[in-house]
């Protein structure tokens, strides 16, 4: 591979990372709406901000390294089906709690 190809690939990777970050609507929903709403109810803003940053770092760090550790497990289609079912159960649970709260 030539030197110019490496630079071109690096620029493409950086552009793609920035696009996934800044063009993702969940970034704004989670950060502005969800965290903003919760933060408006908290008295110690600094502690809340530090906790949010730390938990975000731990989550993404665990997600990155956890994917490598769990790769052999998720090589099996049954594992994906079980994960999908668990996610569905959690989503239905959240929906039910929202319906019952009103």
From TrEMBL:
The chain crosses the membrane at residues 12-35, 47-66, 78-101. One of its GO terms (cellular component) is plasma membrane. It comes from the Bacteria. The keyword Membrane applies. Its main location: membrane. This is Arginine exporter protein ArgO. Keywords: Cell membrane, Membrane, Transmembrane, Transmembrane helix. One of its GO terms (molecular function) is amino acid transmembrane transporter activity. It is a multi-pass membrane protein. It is found in: Cell membrane. The keyword Transmembrane applies. Coiled coil: none annotated. InterPro entries: LeuE-type.
